[in-house]
Amino acid sequence: MPLSRASSAGKRERARAYNKALPLTIRCLTWNVGNAKPVAAELAHALPDGLDEDIIVVGTQENSYKAGKGGRKQAVAQEKRAVAQESPEPTEKAGSAYSAYEPAPTPGSPHSSVGDTEEREEDSAAAVGGGGKGHAEWEEMLARRLGRGYVPVRHVRLWEMRLSVYVKASQRANVTKVHVASAATGGPGGMLGNKGGLVVRLRLGATSLAFVSCHLAAHSHMLSRRNHNCSELLRETASALGPRHLTAAAQFDHVFWLGDLNYRTDLNAAAAAAGEEAPFPTDEEHHGQVLRLVEQGDWGALLGADQLAASRAAGEAFVGFEEGPIAFAPTFKVERSSELVYQQKRIPSYCDRVLWKSAAGLRGAVSQTSLAALPRVSTSDHKPVVATFSLTPSEALRGTMQEVRSGGSRGSRGSSRKSSLFGNVSSSFAAGSASFTGSRAYASLDVVRPTVDMDYTGGCDPYCVVSANPYELLYCAAHEHVLKKGEAAASTVKHGQDCTWPDDEVPLLRLRGVRTAALPHTTLLLAVLDKDNVILGKDDPVGVVQVPLRPVGWSQDSDLPPSFEVEFDEPLVQGMASTDLKSGRPLGRLRGTLSIATTAEAIEEALAEARADGAGEKARTVKLGASAFERRWRCC
């Protein structure tokens, strides 16, 4: 049954109690179903008996078929027509479009979902076409396979893509803050849902998670389009999940990304990148060599020619993401059988992937426990891929009201110091005081401008917005009354080639009351945006940097020192790219130092210095969050 409304204090107590149950386990299944009805018994390869993971995530593509007999025959015929016409993307059958968010139709049914009932997105659930019986049949198949031990959090659909997230029935009370989103990136102008992606975000205990399932542009020569698809997907779903300038790849503890990413094996491109001539001038020679590498089990050579690996190395996609070691044959394009037989007209490729990314303050919390393809699944031209994970749940950052009341002063304000940047550029940096149970801290940071021209006339009018993970943890001490409407920002620098924000223009920051031991799990999010001076125009996000509030070398079993500094020099990342996909130029870098103290004496000294310098007096707040998100958001 849907989760009922609970008090904030009750949610915090429940989250902290849950954190003691380690670890949190996740199973992700991605599968391009190939427009053919799956064999229910073959789901046991991906979802075997005796499952014990806390979360089950199932993302599928081309998951539309006739219920009953004839579905597989129809899919094979459609595939043959697409190959014969050499269509870049198979034409969608009229009337098959479907875009929906699906909570449970009735409590207690196999589709009954969990999560905060007040946070459902009923207004985003409108269907835009007929789904057909196959959709319900697929979800029923999953429900029967998983049994009563699991309950769905949400089902999301966009045309032939599906994303279903389940949790253990015993964990349903720990699931809160559930939101969903979808984005179409296929066809002219990225308007068609034959390509695109789906997102489900949730909080389990104190851990915020996002799951993304996507289907990117097909064919080897569409590499640039695939990379753009990723950025489009993140940009278009941002406002439904949180602030518009923070995408799903930046604002949560952990994001898991799965799907038919369609990145291909390209031995010629790998040779060209190494400064060599293309060794296989014809498709037949290229195909033959790839098949020989498959027969030899030389996965390293195949992955060395993988387009996804090349895009990651170039900063064009999946920057900051991780992927486990692949020790199996390519999953595409195969004959529809229980054997691993590749089709003759397509280069065997690792199209089906599972990657993940953690917030800077939580890196190392996720470990992949398995990654495997399922060659015995017979109904599709893709083999499914399953990955399992173990992760350390996030700390409940805020204490109970009783702890806060017994924990000392909460009245500290901001502070500021000056520092020089690396190289010949210098700038001021903001510093904020924070109140904790038993201790306090302040932080300082430097910012330098991006390098990409964002305006039509060239140049960029950058300003920096400071947020935190968790999102509700940070606010501007001088502007507390606009906490839910805006975020602290430095002043805009007009056509800033050599950007400097002096002390009085950089906001003073303060964390809300949290437990001191939780500080190392907090991440500061620094977002650079370009001011749009066009009437009714929206400011353009340039990139984001994540900085953990913990000393270098800190470990879970060690206490924080009385004071420490964290230096950072990181590339700006917009969506999941650190390179501008149009010009190929780097987006820029942020460099700076975080100075942190955990004693009241250090805070008071820094506060006195900030007052003497007039730090933050000209800082401002900006309204950036999406109104729909702001309307739904409730502090934990």
Automatic annotation (TrEMBL):
All copies of domain Inositol polyphosphate-related phosphatase, residue ranges: 22-397
Stretches of the chain forming a coiled coil according to its record: none
Pfam families: Exo_endo_phos2
Highest taxon of source: Eukaryota
Sequence segments annotated as region (Disordered): 64-134
GO molecular function per UniProt: phosphatidylinositol-4,5-bisphosphate 5-phosphatase activity
GO biological-process terms attached to the record: phosphatidylinositol dephosphorylation
InterPro entries: C2_domain_sf, Endo/exonu/phosph_ase_sf, IP5, IPPc
Gene3D superfamilies: C2 domain (2.60.40.150), Endonuclease/exonuclease/phosphatase (3.60.10.10)
PANTHER family: INOSITOL 5-PHOSPHATASE, LD06095P
Protein name listed in UniProt: Inositol polyphosphate-related phosphatase domain-containing protein
